[in-house]
Design brief:
Blueprint (H helix, E strand, L loop, with lengths): L12 E2 L4 E2 L11 E7 L3 H12 L4 E4 L11 E5 L2 E4 L10 H6 L9 E2 L4 E5 L3 E5 L3 H8 L4 H25 L11 H13 L7 H9 L2 H6 L5 H14 L32 E2 L4 H13 L3 E3 L4 E7 L2 E7 L4 E9 L3 H8 L7 H8 L7 E8 L20 E4 L3 H12 L8 E5 L14 E8 L11 H18 L9 E5 L1 H8 L35 E3 L13 H13 L6
Parallel strand pairs: 3-4, 3-14, 4-11, 14-20
Antiparallel strand pairs: 1-2, 5-6, 7-10, 8-9, 12-13, 13-14, 15-18, 15-19, 16-17, 17-18
């Protein structure tokens, strides 16, 4: 996609307060905007596109030579398009897709075959999306579990909309007793009054471990391994199956309405970078400018007010409002001078975090692994695009126990994707791309994430896959490994955490990123946050960007997006 670092050329657009003039080729770029946004990750682009659509003069500046942040696709090797971080479209909200006309700008989700999961002593099991078909699979292990599964699905479907509504809430500060804040709390209570009848369910999902919550419904090891896989590892956080609060991740499939014109979930044609490319095009169609290779070294603050940003090349971009899509830690500990921030705010911020222990291994291959017993599983012809390797509860528990002992998991849990099965454009003809996500690898300042560790991770991943696909040679043409240190260095994710900080009770809703500043505002006037450091956290949802745009437009008296 062609980059337009200074916006699209064309006629001026008047919005009532400023004249948006997009420079012709060769003209000096403008250096004063209504809004400048730090970081062209998906939330920064969503925020910028909504603000530009509302008529504001917006500039998004990005350190890297491409948009997307952790939602990007890169040609790591010639002919291979690798989604280096986010790898699956599961949570991007239909409201954002439709409001920004992303389908018009190249966004297309491809339906995927069902996931296959080999189970101990049972071979591969197909995780059919249809409730009755998956219940039939569970009946192989427990008649009780087969009968419980439809009730479990209905239960989550009843609780899910409560959390889906909560995603869109802009957190209030419960410690402030002003008239306006009391009004906001009262309106919040009214909008979410359905929570009253489900208060115990909501509390349980936020406080219980996934293992304990699932054990209310299921008795077989197979069912617990199937439904506990994502909470026990797929969230990217340093958590285990028995960690308190992981029951919340059981709701993942309920946090998005898949029955809208925006379509469902799956793999994105062209890789996850096609999502953010569509967001960029949408924003630019309304006059938003995107400057790539423009690293922000400082947010300019004078007399307690944000006035713009300074770039590494010495340029300064002035703006009436500054929005940071960087993490809260990077924004306030690196970009804003300490003197502009209250000491108690910084103290609280330093406690906001959580490390990730997941890894990704990308392989360019000629041959995909063939699961032993796949023919008898009922999967049908062709190859699965995703295989989950967690054959038992003990496997998940041991992977986390190894981490707690300070060592890489000897038997890592794995999500083995072959996106080129669904989208052949991701690899050269006759070749395939494998993207393997798993854990755990110790992280932190003392962790060794060098080449020797990456070699060991690759070998362990291949050995693990070959346990279930013994005819696969394990040979690859190219390899690319991402550990938490790489996620932090490349994408600015603190501790490699895709959520910027763990999603636990101490760091949720009005406590995210710190109490008193969960409404996208900051101690600096006219400086706002729109990143995963805000409610509801990470994942490619678009919600923090949307909610930040709401706050800014309300601040400017322009209503909702």
């Amino acid at each position: 996609m062609a980059a337009y670092p200074f916006g699209l050329s064309g006629a001026a657009k008047r919005d009532g307060t400023s004249l948006i003039q997009r420079p012709e080729q060769g003209e000096k770029p403008r250096m004063k905007y209504d809004v400048v946004i730090v970081g062209a990750g998906h939330n920064g682009l969503v925020c910028g596109a909504y603000l530009a659509k509302a008529g504001l003069n917006v500039c998004v500046v990005e350190r890297r030579p491409l948009v997307g942040g952790a939602c990007a696709t890169e040609e790591v090797w010639p002919g291979y398009k690798v989604s280096t971080a986010a790898h699956m479209l599961g949570l991007l909200q239909p409201r954002v897709i439709l409001d920004l006309d992303l389908q018009k700008f190249g966004y297309e989700v491809l339906a995927t075959p069902p996931i296959v999961q080999p189970l101990a002593g049972a071979g591969p099991v197909v995780l059919w999306r249809e409730t009755d078909r998956l219940a039939q699979q569970l009946a192989r292990f427990s008649a009780k579990d087969a009968a419980a599964y439809p009730r479990y699905v209905e239960h989550l479907a009843a609780v899910g909309p409560i959390f889906r509504q909560l995603m869109w809430e802009i957190p209030f500060d419960p410690s402030v007793m002003s008239a306006g804040n009391l009004r906001d709390m009262a309106m919040f209570a009214w909008r979410n009054r359905q929570m009253i009848g489900r208060f115990s369910d909501v509390t349980d999902l936020l406080t219980m471990s996934a293992y304990d919550y699932l054990s209310r419904w299921f008795e077989s090891d197979a069912a617990l391994a199937i439904f506990g896989y994502y909470p026990a590892g797929g969230s990217g956080q340093s958590v285990g199956f028995h960690t308190a609060g992981t029951a919340y991740f059981l709701l993942r499939g309920q946090l998005r309405d898949n029955n809208t014109p925006a379509g469902g979930t799956g793999l994105v044609r062209g890789g996850m970078g096609a999502v953010t490319a569509a967001m960029q095009r949408s924003g630019e169609s309304h006059g938003m400018e995107t400057r790539l290779g423009a690293e922000v070294t400082r947010i300019l603050v004078k007399d307690g007010k944000a006035q713009g940003v300074a770039l590494a090349n010495g340029d300064e971009i002035r703006a009436n409002l500054v929005v940071s899509n960087a993490s809260a830690r990077h924004t306030f500990l690196n970009l804003v001078e300490d003197g502009a921030l209250p000491g108690d705010f910084l103290d609280r911020l330093r406690g906001f975090g959580g490390r990730a222990t997941a890894f990704k291994v990308h392989l360019a291959v000629r041959e995909l692994p063939r699961l032993e017993g796949i023919e008898a599983s009922g999967f049908g012809p062709g190859e699965p695009s995703q295989v989950t390797i967690a054959p038992s509860v003990a496997w998940l528990e041991q992977a986390f126990a190894d981490l707690q002992a300070g060592m890489p998991s000897r038997r890592p849990y794995l999500t083995v994707q072959a996106p080129s099965v669904v989208d052949p454009t991701l690899a050269p003809p006759g070749h395939h791309l494998m993207s393997i996500y798993g854990g755990h690898i110790p992280s932190g300042p003392d962790a060794d994430h060098g080449e020797a560790t990456k070699d060991a991770v690759t070998a362990r991943v291949i050995d693990t896959i070959r346990q279930f696909a013994p005819t696969w040679s394990g040979e690859y043409l190219h390899r690319h490994v991402m550990l938490s240190a790489d996620y932090e260095a490349q994408f600015g994710l603190p501790g490699g955490n895709p959520h910027h900080a763990d999603l636990n009770l101490s760091q949720l809703f009005f406590r995210r990123p710190v109490p008193g500043y969960a409404n996208h505002g900051t101690p600096v006037r006219d400086l706002y946050l729109c990143s995963a450091s805000n409610h509801p956290g990470g994942g490619v949802t678009g919600v923090p960007g949307y909610n930040a745009a709401r706050v800014l437009l309300r601040h400017l008296g322009r209503g909702r997006p």
